[in-house]
Specification:
It contains three helices and ten strands. By secondary structure, it is of the alpha/beta class. The structure holds inosinic acid and magnesium ion (MG). The site of inosinic acid has 13 residues, from strand 6, helix 3 and strand 9. Magnesium ion binds next to loops.
Length: about 180
């Protein structure tokens, strides 16, 4: 059991299971995009560890870049405004693979895809380590999914609870009753 701030978590996916799955995702992507040039876009902060391990197993001529999604309450009636920040590459005509830590409701990833599509890439696909099918409200499921998990809060391997827990080598789930 691991305590983070006021909560207790228990091991849910062990480090060696994660490593095997990450390698298998990298193999699949490398096969699917053979002969093409890919630009990987990793979403910070949560995906940094997954992106590093995935990318070192990718065998394609490719580049990787790191972006952040900034949400802020606008002054207009539309409320929340989202922006992808940190993108310096021209994505026009590129094959994009977005690397995400977790797709929960799907709202974040759908926003990111919509914003990126304005840059005219030739394709966009999503590779997420974790996916919560019961929470998902989006239109299109991620093309590459490491683990489909129950609708419970998880931390570790890049994912945080209020900024903590990202350094855990395994993925831990909030203990029942917490
Ligand atoms: P969305 O609901 O798919 O838009 O997910 C939004 C963001 O919430 C994700 O990118 C994560 O950063 C975060 N998130 C969702 N579920 C979890 C979780 O179980 N643990 C840690 N972060 C999460
Ligand atoms: Mg995230």
């Amino acid at each position: 059991m691991v305590s983070i701030l006021d909560k207790n978590f228990e091991t849910f996916i062990q480090a060696d299971e994660i490593a095997n799955e990450v390698k298998s995702l990298a193999r699949k992507i490398s096969e699917d995009y053979a002969g093409k040039e890919v630009l990987f876009l990793s979403i910070l902060n949560g995906a940094f560890m997954f992106a590093a391990d995935l990318y070192r197993n990718i065998s394609l001529p490719s580049q990787i870049s790191f972006v952040k999604v900034q949400s802020y309450a606008g002054m207009e009636s539309t409320g929340r405004v989202d922006e992808v920040i940190g993108l310096t590459e021209d994505i026009k005509g590129k094959e994009l693979v977005i690397i995400e830590d977790i797709v929960d409701s799907g709202i974040t990833i759908e926003k990111v895809k919509k914003l990126l599509s304005k840059g005219g890439p030739s394709s966009i696909s999503v590779c997420t380590l974790l996916f919560k099918p019961d929470a998902f409200q989006g239109q299109q499921k991620p093309e590459y999914i490491g683990f489909a998990i129950p609708n419970k809060f998880v931390v570790g391997y890049g994912l945080d609870y209020n900024g903590y827990g990202r350094n855990l080598e395994e993925i831990c789930q909030l203990k029942t009753g917490e």
